[in-house]
Design brief:
- A seven-stranded antiparallel β-sheet has the order 1-2-3-4-5-6-7.
- By secondary structure, it is an alpha+beta fold.
- The two termini are 33 Å apart.
- 34% of the residues are buried.
- The model has no long low-confidence stretch (mean pLDDT 87).
- The chain has two domains: 246 residues, no CATH class; 87 residues, no CATH class.
- The radius of gyration is 26 Å and the shape is elongated.
- α1 packs across α3, α3 runs antiparallel to α11 and α5 packs across α6.
- 58% of the residues lie in helices and 19% in strands.
- A hairpin with a 3-residue loop joins β3 and β4.
Amino acid sequence: MILERYLGGHLLKGYILVLLVLVALFCFLDLIDELSEVGKGQYRIADAFLYVFSTIPTKLLEFSPVCILIGGGYALASLVRGSELLAMRAAGMGASQIALALLKAALVVALGLMVIAQFVAPRSLQWGEIHRQQALAGEDALRTEHGFWSRDRMHFMSVASLMHGRLPSGINIYELAEDGRLLMFTHAERATILSEGNWLLHDVTVKTEHGGMLKTQFKAQQPWRAFLNESQLKILELSPETLSLSELWGYVHHLRASGQLAEGYALLFWQRVFLPLSLAVMVPLLIPLILAHPRAPGFGLRVVIAMLIGVLYFLVARVIGSVGLLLDFPPWLTALLPPAATLLLALSWQGKRLNLRF
């Protein structure tokens, strides 16, 4: 329908406008923070710009719910003041049809964001964090598409890949003599990174030289004190945001199966899963603007309140996430609380029984 596309297009324009402003603002703040790291290792100003640029897709996921509300409020306000919304209603388009058109546009945005959450944002941020930490670590650590390499004097190690995006696998550790002879070779199928740089190697094969003879030992597990410094270790220990939805799901199951805490990763997973719902619940908050007349008392207040609710949603959602982790709430419930509370607020706002007026 032409009117539906027209409304959806206005909502998308307002959404993109607000999104660009917020992303630019927070990128600028992040850049200021990153400039304090310039000069460490091989980290330069160009590296800071590249890292901040790599965080943009992740920021799209974080800011989209509030941008739908603020951008939608701005777009609808312009339509109301131009009497275009009034003309649509006079042409027979009811408030429910207008709300449905806005909801369709919001769900189109949500679909695009889910694709970004699975394929774009994790890869972009992962590249940015690897590039950043590698520059800070200097020349003693290298991570490429073929794996991670590091050394400490005559000790070398390589990690072929990261299971679930977090667990080192295919670990090879080489200990060389001063003349270049191989003294010990250790291979582990996978490893668990414990606290303070202690690793627990699994399915280990150790080969050592004794009098020109090669001795081989097999062990189910073996502790190993990693020689990686803090900067080098961070190249492996990337933030949870660098994981896609499928990687987050697999890593959460691994942590729980091994008796480790997984609530933080589970919360991020459910927050991304409920992202379409977070966008959809913003539409009912825009309905009072649809029903308003531009000269009606309190019209400007409605617009301001809609925008303030968007800002509060962004802040309160973060607070609820932190409180939920502290109080050990189920991660899915913690992630569901902000959109559910927003929906209840929207229904109460429009409820005849409560008779809320501006």
